[in-house]
Write a structure and sequence with these properties.
2 domains; single chain; alpha/beta; 30% helix; 8-stranded mixed beta sheet
């Protein structure tokens, strides 16, 4: 049994038989190569939304376990892709990291500083370094404000520019994201969807951030526009030395931008590793099924590969399946999957997966897999 698996096994069990995930430090230590201190460390993060009932007495009868014991790190200048089906908790996780939603428990450290539980004054001082690009460019921009206000107000509020400098700074940012600088006086409704998303990116850049959380920034856009926005984000990352947490449900989009990929299912990380490793050799059956849904440009290769169609819908986080949360849809599930929760363990080179039946290079369960002991041996 590996040292990391032993640590996970010996950790306190958090809820009703759930095993504790490896810590951010454990995950970081297993990555190959020497690196500087991570810019972002998420450690055992939990976000539960209470379900309440009653008229006279407002009592809690349950909880929506949107994010359940999630840990990972992001290095400076890296892009971590966070993928999974709709409803798996990706957006809740990203908002909890930025403290737009208060986590139930856990730790988030930015540049080595704990940011959970900060007061309003401390949070405001930290806010410029951590920005977000939202999913819906139609809802994320104030329709009553002009572009000059949307992009310029944050800079004035945080003292980056003042007075007549603001106009030039806004025009410069608009030009940098591919918009006409002369359109700074227009309202959001006068732009297309792709142009509105560029405005959202300019607003995020206005405070000179170090970390940008992009919450499905291209999912609401046409395919041709998606490529333009992705190329823009890559260019901006190099120019401004940005670090990205790129949230998406499409692995085909993420593969073009991510250095590492974290796969999320019903509030938990089920696979984490370098993008090249995850794409060439998925270990978790859920990751394999997501990859099989990504179209291949070659029609002959696309027609010849095996499609994996999952049955049923994503389970409700208010009542997740016991043990392995994927066992109700997994084609390789056995009895152990509904009894014991699999550990998130290192399968080599910092490639983690939580599965009793890890897949081999041919996409089939490895021999001897099927018990927790076999999985962590």
């Amino acid at each position: 049994m590996s040292e990391l698996a032993q640590k996970a096994r010996n950790s306190d069990q958090s809820r009703d038989g759930d095993v504790a995930a490896p810590s951010a430090a454990d995950l970081e230590s297993a990555r190959p190569g020497s690196r500087e201190e991570p810019i972002l460390e998420v450690d055992h993060l939990v976000k539960h939304f209470p379900i309440k009932a009653g008229i006279l007495f407002d009592r809690q009868i349950g909880a929506v376990r949107a994010v359940d014991d999630v840990s990972f790190t992001v290095s400076r200048g890296e892009t971590l892709g966070l993928v999974g089906e709709s409803g798996c908790g990706k957006s809740t996780l990203s908002r909890s990291i930025l403290q737009l939603i208060e986590p139930t428990s856990g730790s988030v450290r930015f540049e080595g500083r704990e940011i959970t539980g900060l007061g309003s004054r401390a949070s405001r001082a930290l806010r410029p370094a951590m920005q977000m690009v939202f999913q819906d460019p139609y809802a994320s921009l104030n329709p009553r404000k002009r572009v000059a206000q949307i992009v310029g107000d944050p800079m004035r509020l945080h003292g980056i520019v003042s007075g007549p400098e603001t106009k030039d700074a806004v025009r410069e940012l608009l030009a940098r994201v591919g918009l006409n600088p002369e359109h700074y006086n227009r309202f959001p409704h006068e732009f297309s969807g792709g142009q509105r998303q560029r405005i959202g990116i300019a607003r995020a850049l206005s405070l000179k951030p170090k970390l940008i959380v992009a919450d499905e920034p291209v999912s609401a856009l046409d395919v041709s526009i998606q490529a333009q926005i992705i190329n823009l984000l890559e260019d901006l990352q190099e120019e401004f030395e940005l670090t990205y947490l790129f949230v998406a449900h499409d692995l085909g989009v993420v593969r073009h931008v991510a250095d590492r990929i974290a796969v999320m299912y019903v509030g938990k990380i089920v696979e984490l590793g370098a993008a090249a490793d995850v794409y060439s050799h998925p270990i978790h059956p859920y990751t394999q099924s997501l990859l099989s849904a990504v179209p291949i440009p070659d029609p002959h290769a696309n027609a010849g590969r095996r499609q994996i169609v999952l049955e049923g819908d994503v389970p409700s986080p208010a009542n997740p399946p016991s043990a392995c949360r994927f066992h109700t849809r997994c084609p390789f599930a056995t009895e152990v999957c509904s009894v014991e929760e699999p550990l998130l363990i290192d399968h080599g080179g910092g490639h983690f997966a939580a599965c009793h039946h890890p897949l081999d290079a041919e996409g089939r369960p490895r021999r001897g897999a099927g018990t927790r002991a076999a999985a962590v041996a």
